[in-house]
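user: can you give me the structure for this one chain? tokens are fine.
assistant: on it. calling the predictor now.
[tool input]
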Amino acid sequence: MQKVRRSNWKTGSLGWMTLVVIVGACVVTLPWSLDRYDVQDYEQVFQSPGQLYWLGSDELGRSLGWRCLLGGAISMGIGLAAAGISVGLGVVWGATAGYLGGRVDAVMMRIVDILYGLPYILLVVLLNLALTPAFTRLIGMVFSEDTARHVAGLVTLLVAIGGVSWLTLARVIRGQVLSLREQPFLEAARACGIGPVRTFWFHLLPNLVGPTIVYGTLSVPGAVLAESFLSFLGIGVQPPLPSWGNLAAQGTAQLANLGLPGTVVRWWLLLWPCVLLGATLMALNFFGDRLRDKLDPKTR
């Protein structure tokens, strides 16, 4: 057990340091990456990594380094926001169902079962198609049409991912509430005449902070991966805005050149987005596992 704890501590520290480096670089350089991500130089097309372009350039002569940094900020931002929406919906739904019980619990959890049976990608695509026009019109009242279209796409994406990824957390929180509802401290609160709303907010919800934080941390890599996968398919972040998903999708065209004589493989177009995405996902999972070991009394 001691060796397992020490191993988890090491991987958790590795995950934390990796997150600090990658996320810190994406956030600190955000003003410069926003300014330079779409700067095109047709004399520097497909330049390999070097002094001028430290991660290489693409087919339009744009710096892959700046595009990866901005893509990381966009992917992480959507992942964090979507995970926040997912945690909020899951906690409210699961806690309400478990606390009220009876027919309300049965109806609410049957709705969760129905949503579980629907294809995840189909739900996200339908929400994306349904919400994008409304968000575009709303944001277009403040920004230009081009800006409104890009911002609406990002907002719709995080709402769609967060709106369909809360189902597992709802079940977890419901189970926690069902076990806590019969605990002596809640019976004492009811015996003292404390109302159900006050009991729910001040006595029940604080005991759900630990599992909520742990699940929220572990749901971030899932949301980031969902955004990258949707962008890879072409229904997520739209060019010219970069994300790690659509950058990897653009780089997959180089796989067709593998093994063909006389062709040049621009390996950097696929390698760097995939490495950054994979390292970030592993770091988030390591950090989430370490946090779970820290907060879950069963693993202490």
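assistant: here you go. Residues 1-5 have pLDDT under 50 and may be disordered. Residues 2-299 form a domain with the MetI-like fold fold (CATH 1.10.3720.10).
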